[in-house]
């Protein structure tokens, strides 16, 4: 057990899917895993372990934002031996070709400052996805009838951003979408020689102002979960 994860050591798989929303962890475990067991409910940050096609998998909520994800990813990696961590998140589309319900596979994640910034000092570290996971996720996504985009995303610290100029620069530099965790996940994976990836569903669009209706969210998130599972065990 750790401060934030009330599981026993063997309760957590080497492969962990990480949604921001703990209820998405519950839904994904109940929908896609066999014999899913609740392994964490400390602070309501639900985690489940079960199996997918015979492979042991944990789905653990990360909470919103890099400081929260950093707590869970640190404990999963350092205390529970997680080796492959795949974020399954929602994001806001930033480019015109990115549509609602599309999937973004994040090659890199730009950030202003992650929780790891203090150790890098003047270095602008470039957090990037694991190549084998990225390649497998793109193959899995392209085999489906779903818009798929591969490229850079923006991991923001603010959902209600008062700096429109930042988004302007992201759009100008081809950033596909905005979310709030991937850059720190990629940085921690690099530090601890793990594999990490973020597979994201576009739930709203910053340019058009469109939003996925809440009754369509779960159905749209299903592709993302299956892509993540297929990539983890490709
Ligand atoms: O849907 P999740 O995985 O929580 O991801 C996105 O949604 C939250 C903001 O609403 C942030 O965590 C952002 O990264
Ligand atoms: O961080 C996020 C997540 C979804 N949509 C956004 O606009 N931002």
UniProtKB/TrEMBL annotation:
Residues forming the Nucleoside phosphorylase domain are 16-230
Which residues are phosphate-binding? 20, 24, 43, 87-90
Stated EC number for the protein is: 2.4.2.1
What Gene3D superfamilies would the database entry show? Nucleoside phosphorylase domain
Name a Pfam family for this protein. PNP_UDP_1
Catalytic reaction list: uridine + phosphate = alpha-D-ribose 1-phosphate + uracil; a purine D-ribonucleoside + phosphate = a purine nucleobase + alpha-D-ribose 1-phosphate; a purine 2'-deoxy-D-ribonucleoside + phosphate = a purine nucleobase + 2-deoxy-alpha-D-ribose 1-phosphate
Keywords linked to the UniProt accession:
Glycosyltransferase, Transferase
Which family is it part of? Belongs to the PNP/UDP phosphorylase family.
The record, for PANTHER family, names: FI09636P-RELATED (PTHR43691:SF11), URIDINE PHOSPHORYLASE (PTHR43691)
Oligomeric state and interaction partners are given as:
Homohexamer; trimer of homodimers.
Main function: Catalyzes the reversible phosphorolytic breakdown of the N-glycosidic bond in the beta-(deoxy)ribonucleoside molecules, with the formation of the corresponding free purine bases and pentose-1-phosphate.
What's the name of the protein? Purine nucleoside phosphorylase DeoD-type
- Organism (species): Pseudophaeobacter arcticus
């Amino acid at each position: 057990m750790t401060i934030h994860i009330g599981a026993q050591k063997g309760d957590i798989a080497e492969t962990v899917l990480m949604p921001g929303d703990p209820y998405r962890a519950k839904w994904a475990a109940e929908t896609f895993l066999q014999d899913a067991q609740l392994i964490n409910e400390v602070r309501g940050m639900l985690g489940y372990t079960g199996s997918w096609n015979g492979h042991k998998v944990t789905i653990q909520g990360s909470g919103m934002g890099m400081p929260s994800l950093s707590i869970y990813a640190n404990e999963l990696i350092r205390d529970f031996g997680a080796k492959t961590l795949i974020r399954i998140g929602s994001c806001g589309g930033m480019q015109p070709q990115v549509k609602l319900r599309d999937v973004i596979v994040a090659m890199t994640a730009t950030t202003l400052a992650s929780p790891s910034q203090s150790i890098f000092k003047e270095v602008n570290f470039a957090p990037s996805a694991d190549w084998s996971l990225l390649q497998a996720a793109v193959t899995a996504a392209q085999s489906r009838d779903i818009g798929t985009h591969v490229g850079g995303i923006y991991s923001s610290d603010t959902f209600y951003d008062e700096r429109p100029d930042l988004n302007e620069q992201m759009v100008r530099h081809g950033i596909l979408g905005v979310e709030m965790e991937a850059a720190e996940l990629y940085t921690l994976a690099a530090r601890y020689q793990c594999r990490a990836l973020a597979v994201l569903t576009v739930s709203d669009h910053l340019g058009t102002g469109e939003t996925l209706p809440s009754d369509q969210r779960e159905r749209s998130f299903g592709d993302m979960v299956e892509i993540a599972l297929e990539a983890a065990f490709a």
